[in-house]
C-alpha cells in the first residue's frame, strides 16, 4: 500500500470543492422538473424534510467514513469500508464507490459537452432568428449526429473528447487543480445564476403575447413556493423528493468519502459537511427554482410549463426564450445559462475522477498523471457509446443503473455499516471529533433508524413502482388483500425491458427503433456489469498484493 501526503490547501477550498461536487446539473436541470412534475409547492416540503432526515445524515456518514479511512492511508471506498469492517464482503461493496463514478462521468461529461458547445453557439448568435421548433430540432440533430455540427463530421464526439480531456488535464494536477477550479467555478456559477434569477424574478407579465396572454413569471414562482400540505400523505412525492436528494448532494457515489479522506485527522467535518450541504441547497432552491420555471412561465405561461416540463427544456426551449430579450442580452443570458451549467457539471465530474486515482495511488503507487490518464481511458471507453448510440437509449441505461440504482444501494449499505457495524457510539465520536459546532444528539437516532428506513423505502419504491406511480391506489389495493400492477418504469419491469416491450405493443410502427433500443440497452447493461467486474478484479488483486506484503 502506498501513502500520500496530499491534502487540501485551505478550508475554503475544501468546502468549495465539496459544494462543487454536490452542485451539479441536477440542481438546475432535474430539480425544477421534479418540482413541477410533483406539484410545485407540494414537492418542496417533503424535499426539505428529506434533506434533514436523509441528506444531512448521509453527509455525516460519508465525511466520517472518508476521514476515518484516510487516517489509515485509504483514499477510496473499497479499503475505506474495509477499514471499518474486516469482513471481505465490504471491500467489494466498496467497489460501488469507484464503479458509480466512472459509470456516471461517462455520460455526465456528454451533457457537459452540450453546455460547452452551447456557450459557443450563444456567443456567435447561432440561434438568432430561429423559431421554437427549429431550436428544438437543432438539439435533436446534434445528439442524433445528423447535423448542427458546422459541417464538421462527428462534432459531438470531438467536443465530448475535448471536454473529457479538460477533466483529465485538471485531475492530473491533483487536489490543487480541483481546488483552483472550485474557487473560480463556484463564484462564477453563483454570479451567472444570480443574473438569470434576477431577470426571472423581475419579468412579471412583461412578455405576455397574443399566443400566450396568461404568461406571468410570478405564476411559476408562486407554483413552486405555495406550500401544499396534502402532499405529505402522497408516497409518490416522498419518493421523488428522496430521489432528488441523491442527485443534488452526490451521496452514495464514493466521491465525498474520497475528498474527506484527505482531511487531517482532527480537522472539523461536522461543520464542513453541513456547510457544503447547505451551500448546495441554497444554490438549488434559491437559484435552481428561480431560472427555468419562472422564465418559461414568463414567456409561455404556467400551463405550457406544466405540460412540457422536462430535461430537454434547458437546451430546446431556453435558447429560444433568450432570443426574445434582444440580440445583446440574449447572448449574455445564453453565456450565463450554459456557462453556469458547464461550471456546475465540471466541478462535479472532477470529483468523480478522484476515487479511481486515490485507489491506484494507494494500491499501485501510480502518480497523478498516470492515474488521471488511466481514468480518462476507462471513462472514454465507457462513454463513447453513450454519444454514438444516444438515440437508442445507451445514455438512459447508464443514468438509470449507474446514476440512480447504484447510488441508493450503496448509500443504504454504507449507512448500515456505519450505524450498525461500526456502531453509533464510535460513529458519533468520529463525527464530533474536532467539530466546531455542536451536532444535535437527536441525529444519533435518525442516523441509526430513520435514514436506513427511508433509504430502504426508496429502494423498495423503485423496485415495486405501481402503474402510473399511483401509490395511494396501490396501497388501497394491498390493504384489500389484492396485488397491483407494476409500472413499466419500475426496477423489476426494467430488468426485463417491460417498458420498451410496452412501447413495442402500443406503437408497432416504430418496432425497428424499439428493437434497436432493446439491443443497445442490453449492450449498455453488459458494459456496466463488465466495468463492475473489472474493478472488483482489481480490488481482489490489490488485496492479494497487500497480503503478500504482510507475510
Automatic annotation (TrEMBL):
Top-level taxon of the source organism: Bacteria
SUPFAM superfamilies in UniProt: SNF-like
PROSITE patterns: NA_NEUROTRAN_SYMP_3
Protein keywords: Membrane, Transmembrane, Transmembrane helix, Transport
Main location: membrane
Pfam families for the chain: SNF
Signal sequence region: none
Transmembrane segments: 12-31, 43-61, 89-110, 150-172, 184-202, 237-262, 283-306, 326-351, 372-394, 400-424, 445-464, 518-541
Subcellular location: Membrane
Membrane topology (UniProt): Multi-pass membrane protein
Protein name, per record: Sodium-dependent transporter
Coiled-coil boundaries: none
